[in-house]
Amino acid sequence: MPPLAQSVKRDTIAQKMPAIARRRRVTGGAFGTHGFPLALWQLAVAITVLGAVEFADGLQAQTGPWWVLLLFAAVGVEYGLAGILAWSRRPSNGIGALLCLGGLTLLGADLQNTGPPALVAAGLILGQAPIAVILHILLAFPSGRLRGRRDRALVLAGYLVTIAIEPPQYLFTHVSGPGGVLQVANQPDLIEIDRWIQRGLGAMIIVATAFVLASRLRRATPLQRRVLALLYSYGIAAILFLELAVNVLGPLFDWGPITVFVLQISALAGIPVAFVLGVFRGDFARTAEIDELGTWLGARDGARPALREALAQTLGDDSVELLFWLPERDRYVDAGGQAAELPEGRSGRAAVEIELGGSLVGAIAYDAVLIVEPELVRAAGRVIALALERERLTAELLASHDALLESRARIVEATDRERRRIARDLHDGLQAQLVLLAVKVGQIAPVPADAEVRAGLAELRAGLEGASDELRRLVQGVMPALLIERGLFAAAEDLVDRMPVPTRLHLTNLDGALPQSVESAGFFVIAEALTNAVKHSRANELAVSLERVDGRLMIEVRDDGVGGARVGGGTGLRGIADRVDVLGGRLLVESPPGEGTRLHAEVPCAS
Amino acid sequence: MRVVIGEDEALLREGLVHLLEKAGIEVLGVAEDAPGLIELARAREPELVITDIRMPPGHTDDGLRAALEIRAQRPSTPIVILSQYVHRSYAVELLADDSAGVGYLLKQRVANGEVFCRDLRRVAHGGTVLDPEVVTVMLARARRDRDAIEQLTPRQAEVLALLAEGRSNAAIARRLVISEKAVVQHVSRIYDQLGLAPSEDDHRRVLAVARYLAR
Q1: Which DSSP category does A8 fall into?
Q2: Residue ranges of chain A whose CB lies within 8 Å of a chain B CB
């Protein structure tokens, strides 16, 4: 930052800095302790007071126009307060702390505009440091922590270039008076050489940073990418602008030093806003702390939200998933009991496994971009291990329930297949043989003249015909021919045709074939419901309707009989309920006494 | 009379051929599946096609569809459909076809060779023969939906059923043990009641009744 002028004022910063640094270490490690918000209050007040004092001192020393002084101090305070806001909402996220650091370095640079030579000297030393902090924030976003050696090296290089290579600028300055407080010699050549070294190294760091950020963008999920791309490009542009505004754009557009400064400070002012919004992305809930997780665990069952939600709030990652380990199946399942896998290495997600008493109980899968340190998740995992074990048992129960349903569906399917096979075998074999036998009997009939033989043959023929009828009825009961030949709707039509009580049939939206299991179940439901109605309801009229709505088959059977039917009442409704249940459908029976019965079954039928 | 047969069950196929040949009906050829039957009918131009409804390759209603295909290629080829089961919907499909000469019978009717062969001849000459079982279903349904049938006397209803099966006046008279003249009177009353146009042609009269019921 270019010095505006110079002046005098008091200390206060030096005393605050160690306290802040200590606090940062505590929260950076895992989680803070209680009373943390009070420390943040103190920090907020301190930063605001520091800004106000610098402004007041600058005014008194008349180091620049009042509004420029106000702007400089205000942006420093803005960084600090934005950082504190993020810090309080997301204690586990380091961006808040980094923004505070940015605010302090800005206010530090602003010391150039105060009166006391010692403070001006400090301001000169910290003059370029805010740029390094912004670079640091960029590389640490969104978790606030640096990933790997490359990132750390880049950030360190940033601080070195802005602080360690800066001294020639104030040691060999031509400026006399307060701005030249650290001058040892007037050496414009050395300043020029140093400036070019600084620019060269700075450019290399920026290019390397842009490269790192770009590769990070490529790996991000589409949702993350939108936010990250915006923040990254803004950050890089702001850093470039700080330098270009002075040396390229200023001369080009004939900007005065004040204009350049206002433009620079405006570019900087947007950064805290953008990054705090980025940290809060989508979720403004206050992040709880691990201690509170413990309190949550102690809460009564009804009062506590799901374990996952509590964990998501604690970690500040809404995408947190709980996986439960089923040892006998040697695999993970989710909370619903469905099979699940641990996230892959390159998916932007990671997982830590949770053990209880030496055996694996589950895992926490989380957003690896948002949470860099697995230790944080592991700590949370240790706290919830016992609760996880309990939920694991629930998930295990759900999984075995699903397995039971599946095996039941398989049994019903196998039964249907077997019925179809039996029907086909009887049809092709026995029935054909009976017809053939009858034909043969018919052919020998005319030959003998004996009345007794003729009567015997007639009886035989009638007997064969009766056996044929009987077999037909039997096969029809096992698996109706029309159901095999033309499907459910034709079979329903045939069923209704043969009802002894007037029955209306209403078919809607029947396009496309239904899965065989649905056809069989549907037919069974209709046949059973109609049989019930005829047997028990004393109805004068029945109605059947079949409709396909959004991948579901709706079956309705109504009668105007005596009502009072109920599932489990020994009227065959139990069998219907079972059939519907196996296919994951639902059954509704309304049967108020004296007002008829309405049976409504819904079965998923997306084939 | 020259016929072709579609039947996939070998024993039954042979039994059928034997039965027909004994009755003096010439069997031009037999087919074991639906495509074979279509090909056979095209090649031999029979006076009647007899087919099982459930046949390879689909083992559903392939026989029926083959018969309808044959009729589409050579209109008014008489067809007789045999099935283990009879359904109203199949009868409706068969009768929806404009031309006459349709039979739809339970397979077990083959056992009574005499009646069966007479039915085949009726169909070959443009008549309509429906199995009593399917007529019963059609009648029950029609009775529910149409007052005109509800108002028929029990005797008229009996005559109507036999008419729809495709029986001649003489056959109806024999069955009900009444005079042929009485049958003619019943038939004309039924025609009035149902609002059907009178017709001298026996076959057309039956077809009109069957179509009325299948409606």
Answers
A1: B
A2: 424, 427-428, 431-436, 438-443, 461, 464-465, 468-469, 472, 475-476, 481-482, 484-486, 490, 493-494, 497-498, 502
In this structure, are strands A542-549 and A503-508 parallel, antiparallel, or unpaired? parallel
d(CA A490, CA A493): 5
List C-alpha distances in Å: B144 to A537, A541, B147: 20, 11, 8
- Cβ atoms of A236 and A213 closer than 8 Å: yes
Q: How far apart, in whole angstroms, are the C-alpha atoms of residue A71 and residue A53?
A: 13
Residues contacting A397, CB < 8 A, separation 6+: A337
A294 pLDDT tier (thresholds 50, 70, 90): low
Under an 8 A CB cutoff, do A435 and B110 touch?
Answer: yes
B167 in Cβ contact with B124 (< 8 Å) = no
Q: Which residues sit opposite A505 in a β-bridge?
A: A544
> Following CA atoms A140, A143, A147, A152 in sequence, which dihedral angle do they give, to the nearest 10 degrees?
30
DSSP string, A499-520: -SS-EEEEEE---SPPPHHHHH
Q: pLDDT for A194-229, tens place per residue? A: 888 888 888 898 889 888 888 888 877 666 777 788
Model-level ipTM above the cut of 0.90:
no
d(CA B192, CA B203): 18
Name the residue in chain B with its Cα closest to that of A482: B87
pLDDT tens digit sequence for B137-181: 888 888 777 777 878 888 988 998 998 898 888 889 999 999 999
| Candidates A444, A459, A497, partner chain B, best to mutate (most B CBs within 10 A) | A497
Q: What pTM, to 2 d.p., does this model score?
A: 0.54
CB atoms within 10 A of CB A31: 21
Question: Which of these, A139, A109, A140, A129, lies nearest to A206 by C-alpha position?
Answer: A139
